[in-house]
Amino acid sequence: MVAADGVRSPLRAAHFAAAPARFTGHVAWRALVPADRTPAAFLQPEARVTMAPGRHLVSYPLRGGTLVNLVAVEERRAWAEEGWSLRDDPASLRRAFAGWGGPAAELVGAVEDCWLWGLFDHAPLRSWVAGRLALLGDACHPMLPFLAQGATMALEDAWVLADRLDRAPDPAVGLASYEAARLPRATRVQRAAAQAGRLYHLRAGLREPAHAGLRMVSRLAPGLIERRFDWIYRHDVTATG
């Protein structure tokens, strides 16, 4: 049996003595903004991150530039339900990002319809296999969205699981091989995603020197910062498992 049933997996809870999903103190609004309501700065064919203490925006164009996808993340104590289909009032989003100026404020102001997503996770597991049951995706390594790797890690899991079961002499060997191949990588990505969220939301006094350092590195060694994540984005499970 393969449990690919998400961050609130009942099979994970029943077979791995795992604690319930925990609210991380982050919420994310999701919205699509038509291009004709979007500031020009956000229409470039690239992903953009706009950061401030305790908050950040991620945006990129979709459907040939006719829409812009917006994810707006806020740190807060108030709990929010986990889920992708919970509508919220755009006024709540604008209140959370009040005080922002420039194109980012214009983009938030252009939102007419949005969804609110409470971000939950689990501490990394030491094992994903119990007998003939294996966990996959968010059931074993729920990812905060700060490196955009949640779906990617689940797809990698699925490919490796199928490959190892196909080549193993029996399912138990295949499941053990899957766990050995995937658990270290997925756990590392899970932790890196959480760390990225902390860097996005640095407070005043820490932000300025950190960003100055990033700008200096970018000037002196172009591409170095991006190459730091080659271990994530250039990994090919079809070649290396």
How does this structure look, described?
- The chain is of the alpha+beta class and 241 residues long.
- Helices cover 39% and strands 22% of the residues.
- It has a six-stranded antiparallel sheet. It has a three-stranded mixed sheet with strand order 1-9-8.
Keywords, please?
alpha+beta; 9 helices; six-stranded antiparallel sheet; 9 strands; 241 residues; single chain; globular
Structural class by helix and strand composition: alpha+beta
Approximately how much helix is present in the residues? Answer: 25-40%
State the separation between the terminal residues, measured CA to CA.
Answer: 21 Å
- If you compute it from the alpha carbons, what radius of gyration comes out, rounded to the nearest whole angstrom? 20 Å
Number of strands: 9
Residue stretches low in confidence (pLDDT < 50, at least 5 long) are none
* Strand arrangement across the biggest beta sheet: 3-4-5-2-7-6
Sheet-strand content, in percent, reads 15-25%
Give the SSE order as H and E letters: EHEEEEEHHEEEHHHHHH
**Biggest β-sheet description:** 6 strands, antiparallel
Global morphology: globular
Individual helix count: 9
**Integer average pLDDT:** 87
